[in-house]
Amino acid sequence: MASLVPHQGPMCLLDHVVNADERHIVAAVISSSNSLFADERGIPVQVALEWMAQASAAWSTLQPREGGTPRQGMLLGARRFEANIDHLALDQPLEVRVSVDTVADSGLGTFEGVLYRAGNTCENDWLAKATLSVLQTPTDA
């Protein structure tokens, strides 16, 4: 994943891309007990926002216009964040599913992110979801 997101070391939080196309990406992550964010109750569900943001960055890198090079960006905000739990159980395989709403030439984009237990096929059985607003730096920055 380090080749797809502009993060290194322990801040590169996703494990791998399961699949991606021109409008979606699914990334795998394990709520590891080795995570920077783990505590005695597990991983706070708010960390899912960063997983969603990193999945959107990976999606962008995979698009032909990017040439496979990750660009710096930032999460500007999250709206409509909902979660069905407070903490994620440790060492649980999860899937982050992100869909593109809009991406402008300016680098501003919105994405819909949903966190599921890995292998879940019921769309209504999500753990967390949000709409993300992101800004990607220009290629010449």
From TrEMBL:
InterPro entries: ApeP-like_dehydratase (IPR016776), HotDog_dom_sf (IPR029069). It holds the Pfam family ApeP-like. SUPFAM superfamilies: Thioesterase/thiol ester dehydrase-isomerase. This is 3-hydroxylacyl-ACP dehydratase. It comes from Kushneria konosiri. The lineage of its organism: Bacteria, Pseudomonadati, Pseudomonadota, Gammaproteobacteria, Oceanospirillales.
